[in-house]
Amino acid sequence: MKSMEIGRVVRMIAVMGLLGSALVTGGYASRAAAAGGLVDGEYDCGGGYTYRAMGKVDIQGNRFRYRPYGDVINGFAPFSMDASGAIQWGGPFGGLDEAPAQIVASKREAFGFNVMYNGNPTALINTMSCHAPGK
């Protein structure tokens, strides 16, 4: 193979690699960015040592709705996420934040997100893990 042909093949491989990378990461990034950092869809949530189902969280854009045990009890409310992945919920989160219970922290994870909460200010902190659609 002549050096000119090798150069052309190398450039073509590089361009294809960049194009493939842009298509894969660009699609995910645009969906996640449109959702405030979380992909739109229905997240399955559960917790405990034996992982018991705790409901669903619907993400649409920068809004969420928690459906404990699948029941719709509230409409959509806003949420935001900072650069570190910490999530601030701008509305009710079922029984997880009804006094004396409180949400201690929420953070984006590779699988979706975690919500750390306790039943009262002196209780142990529990974690509800919510898995993104398809995860």
- H-E order: HEEEEEEEE
Mean pLDDT score: 78
Quaternary structure classification: single chain
In spatial order, strands of the major sheet run 5-4-3-2-1-8-7-6
Q: What is the domain tally? A: 1
Give me the number of helical elements. 1
Q: Strand pairing plus helix content: what structural class?
A: alpha+beta
| Terminal-residue CA separation | 45 Å
Which stretches are poorly predicted, pLDDT < 50 over at least 5 residues?
9-36
Bin the helical content: 10-25%
Query: What's the total number of strands?
Result: 8
What summary fits the major beta sheet? 8 strands, antiparallel
- Principal-axes geometry comes out as globular
Task: Report strand %.
Answer: 35-45%
Radius of gyration: 21 Å
Topology:
Elements: H1 3-34, E1 41-47, E2 52-60, E3 63-68, E4 77-81, E5 87-89, E6 102-109, E7 112-118, E8 126-131
Antiparallel strand pairs: 1-2, 1-8, 2-3, 3-4, 4-5, 6-7, 7-8
Task: Describe the model.
The chain has 135 residues and is an alpha+beta fold. It has one domain (35-131). 24% of the residues lie in helices and 38% in strands. It has 1 helix and 8 strands. The protein has an 8-stranded antiparallel β-sheet with strand order 5-4-3-2-1-8-7-6, with no helix packed on it. A hairpin with a 2-residue loop joins β2 and β3. It is globular. Residues 9-36 have low confidence and may be disordered.
